[in-house]
């Protein structure tokens, strides 16, 4: 499997085999398009792990699901991208599900039937980065254990975080805000949607708040309006790549995947941990993320790009000047 395209000065860490660990929920998306139901493997962290695998990045996914047909589908799906699974559930359970209702504009609304315990801690030795997010990072009882795992990581491991908030499935706004700020204190890279930001902090100031907690890069996505990447010293807007949207399932996860891949392969973990990123850096990695998201929304379901698809799309476009 080929990896995503590297720059001429790509750091050695991008290609020396160190895996990325992704932690979070797996589920089955039951997609309702005007009464026509289809079933797809899903879950925000699963989509990120699957997307990284499709880009040729060694990936381990710590998750839980049932020993049932849906669980078998999850195993096959992840195996098709070369993702290694570590189970974090100790008891018999059913595989979680989410019903996604697709609107006329391609947007998706969700209803969930989900459990998340995280009773078995995954092995984290030799990983270069850990990504956490969504229900797995915020829903008890598993969320406290995920946070403890993140806070115990060595300082040279990059942590990325996407709250991907589902209000019906997480604690109160205040409790969730405290959790998010704890993650931001250890995660140099935080990505969230404008809807996440508005729910967490209705009075605004989200990038500044999370940077003050300890994050070094905060990316806020706004669908077709693009995304804005913030550091202490710079703010860069990255336009969305024009595309005809079939549905938005997995769009934010594809953006997160592209952002992680671009950071690891173009900038390097050590640089993100130790240096202030320049506007040109933000424009470059934000563009990769935007292109990955555009490819995903151009087809049904959470199907992120392969390395070859992303390389072709990047060769046909260039980031806007920072």
From TrEMBL:
Its EC number is 2.7.1.-. PANTHER family: HEXOKINASE FAMILY MEMBER, PSEUDOURIDINE KINASE-RELATED. Coiled coil: none annotated. It comes from Microbacterium rhizosphaerae. This is Carbohydrate kinase. The keyword Kinase applies. Pfam families: PfkB. Residues 31-304 form the Carbohydrate kinase PfkB domain.
């Amino acid at each position: 499997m080929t990896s995503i395209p590297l720059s001429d000065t790509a750091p050695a860490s991008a290609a020396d085999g160190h895996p990325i660990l992704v932690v979070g929920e797996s589920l089955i998306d039951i997609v309702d398009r005007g009464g026509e139901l289809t079933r797809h493997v899903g879950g925000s962290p699963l989509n990120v792990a699957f997307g990284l695998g499709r880009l040729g990045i060694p990936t381990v996914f710590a998750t839980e699901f049932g020993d049932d047909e849906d669980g078998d589908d999850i195993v096959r799906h992840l195996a098709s991208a070369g993702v290694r699974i570590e189970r974090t559930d100790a008891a018999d359970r059913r595989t979680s599900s989410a019903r996604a209702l697709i609107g006329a504009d391609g947007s998706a609304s969700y209803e969930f039937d989900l459990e998340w315990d995280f009773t078995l801690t995954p092995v984290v030795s030799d990983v270069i980065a850990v990504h956490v997010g969504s229900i797995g990072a915020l829903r008890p009882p598993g969320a406290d254990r995920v946070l403890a795992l993140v806070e115990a990581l060595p300082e040279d491991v990059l942590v990325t975080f996407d709250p991907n908030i589902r209000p019906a499935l997480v604690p109160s706004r205040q409790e969730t805000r405290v959790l998010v700020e704890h993650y931001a204190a250890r995660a140099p890279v935080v990505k969230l949607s404008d809807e996440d930001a508005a729910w967490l902090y209705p009075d605004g100031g989200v990038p500044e708040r999370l940077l003050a907690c300890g994050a070094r890069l905060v990316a806020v996505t706004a669908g077709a309006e693009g995304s804005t990447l913030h550091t202490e010293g710079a703010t860069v807007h990255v336009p969305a790549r024009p595309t005809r949207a079939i549905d938005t399932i997995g769009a934010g996860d594809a953006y997160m995947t592209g952002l992680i891949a671009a950071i690891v392969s173009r900038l390097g973990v050590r640089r993100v941990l130790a240096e202030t990123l320049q506007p040109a850096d933000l424009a470059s990695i934000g563009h990769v993320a935007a292109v990955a998201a555009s490819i995903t929304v151009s087809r049904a379901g959470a199907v992120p790009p392969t390395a070859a698809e992303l390389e072709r799309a990047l060769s046909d476009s260039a980031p806007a000047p920072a």
